[in-house]
Amino acid sequence: MTDDTVTISGRVLVPGLAEGKILFSDVGLSFWGGVDAVTGEVIDRRHPLSGQSLRGRILAIPTSRGSCSGSGVVLELLLNDKGPAAILLERPESIITLGVIVAEALFGCSIPVLCVGEKNFATLRDRSDVRIAAMDRGARPATLRLSPEDEGILAGAQGEAAAVAMRIVLRMAEIEGATELIDITRAHIDGCIYTGAGGLAFAEKLRDLGGCVQVPTTLNAISVDQRQWRAQGIAPEFGEPASRLADAYVAMGAKPTFTCAPYLLDDKPQRDEQIVWAESNAVVFANSVLGARTMKYPDYLDICVALTGRAPKAGCHLDSARLPALRIRLPALRDIDDSLYPLLGYLIGTLAPDEIPVIEGLAEFAPDLNDLKAFGAAFATTSAAPMFHIAGVTPEAITGGGYALLDLPVVTLTLDQLRQAWAELNGAPAGPVQLVSLGNPHFSVEEIAALGRLCRGRIKHPAVALIVTCSRHVLEQARVSGDVEPLRSFGVTFVTDTCWCMITEPLIPPSTKVIMTNSGKYAHYGPGLSGREMRFGSLSACVEAAVQGMDTDGLPVWLP
Asked: What is the domain class of 148-320 according to CATH?
């Protein structure tokens, strides 16, 4: 360390000692899709830290953003000795912190995590070397009240797995500032995505300790198509542990739904229902579109809550945490198509990196559930906020929700901002396309039908692969309705169980250089995850690229 090394202090989320060189960014980072768990490199090609290594550095970022699976990547980084020496946050967050807590609790591997506050965080920009001496976080605050049943779970009344899970739940309740726990009615688990040996060991340990979910529990998309990965040419050294991970969660009582769009299942949460969902797009959809109540639960906390049936009473479980903090107004638009919604979600997420926005000017277009799905997935990619409101559309904003009376900061979008966002999602120049990627999040029955109408009577270019990911449930519904076989005849490949954020070669043909997608989420993550350049456009433009072998579209007509 140099003579100008300073000692940093703050609120201790995870205790420990560290010193090293600062790696600073004022932009939140999604570890899933943003950091390589094996090498420690930042692979989000749109992030200011792109190409930097986290190993041994004191990472200073305001918060996380994007995927709930970031906690799994943090765990793997620490177990691989590729992670930072410490993490300094501007404000408390749960995804990154939980990854460190699990590494500490189950594997004895930890780094300090501190929340330093806005003023101190700003000073880190100009620091080089820092030292951290984070004192122990102390005993559980007396303000966190536990019921006799909670105390019993903690003491082992429901078995060792539930006791381990309860200890982790209480650590996170402390960080969230919760004063009590609440009952939840259902869970959706994102931790079934295979990020490495650590996540598999965590799940299998809970299973072996007798873990059993206490509420109806669904599983997110996993890292392979469990029924077909061998036939698809997936290497056994990846396919076998990824499939074992899914089996571990099923053994604990979770349903093998394997979808990143659980809101497309027949049994959906109701308004104001207290639930625990992970997977960023699902969280945002549940809160915003269904009006259910869930925090943005990180991987591993989701299963801990499912094993105990108890969650911290904090975040979007509370009325006060669901209010908008920002008003966003759209420019005049006309003749829109479906590409508007993921583009807007992506852009608005960058403008509201951790604030809940209310968007004005969309109601006249009457967005349907698929439009809101596309918007929410892109929004959850660039923002850490757990929900959004759309005036006159989403349930808590149908009549304005009283928001018209709130004195909120106003951001009025411009066409120039929309054009810039379009350019960012279209990283590759117009030209040849080798793969069309659809279904991030998983396609719905209506989207498969719409794809069928666009492909009818046309011939796919032989040099282009067109792959749709969806759940087993949706694929069967579409098969019964008669939409699947004509699309297969056109040349569409359907892949279930997994999703584009996990798909690599050989499902992505090795010769692929450019991928075309209608997903704002995948257009953002794709370059880092696949190593390919991306084109983005409407579903119609994607079909046109599949037929022509190239994307020649410029800006859409609604974006002059």
From this structure: alpha beta
Q: What is the pLDDT of residues 320-338, one digit of tens each?
A: 999 999 999 999 999 999 9
Task: State the Cα–Cα distance between residues 117 and 260, nearest whole angstrom.
Answer: 34
The CATH T-level fold of domain 426-551 is Aconitase; domain 3 (3.30.499)
What six digits make up the tokens of 204? 């299998």
Which residue has tokens 């078995």?
A: 159
Domain locations along the chain? 6-134, 148-320, 323-423, 426-551
The yes-or-no answer to whether 148-320 and 426-551 have a common fold is yes
d(CA 389, CA 356): 8
Residue 401, pLDDT > 70, answer no
Do residues 19 and 132 touch, judged by C-beta distance below 8 A? Answer: yes
Q: Does residue 371 surpass a pLDDT of 80?
A: yes
- Count Cβ atoms below 10 Å from residue 74 Cβ, excluding itself: 34
What b/e readout covers 42-58, taking b as 16+ CB neighbours within 10 angstroms? bbbbbbebeebbbbbbb
Please state at what angle helix 445-455 crosses helix 539-548, rounded to 10 degrees: 40
Q: How far apart are CA 281 and CA 287, in angstroms?
A: 10
67 is catalytic: yes
Nearest to 301 by CA among 207, 191, 226: 191
User: What does the pLDDT look like over 504-536, one tens digit per residue?
Assistant: 999 999 999 999 999 999 999 999 999 999 999
d(CA 111, CA 104): 8
Query: How many other β-carbons are positioned within 10 Å of the β-carbon of residue 413?
Result: 19
d(Cα 96, Cα 102) in Å, to the nearest integer? 10
Task: Write down the catalytic residue from 9, 25, 30, 67.
Answer: 67
Tokens representing 187 are 């869970």
pLDDT (tens digit per residue) in 544-554: 999 999 998 78
CATH architecture of the domain with range 6-134:
3-Layer(bba) Sandwich (3.50)
pLDDT of residue 387: 98
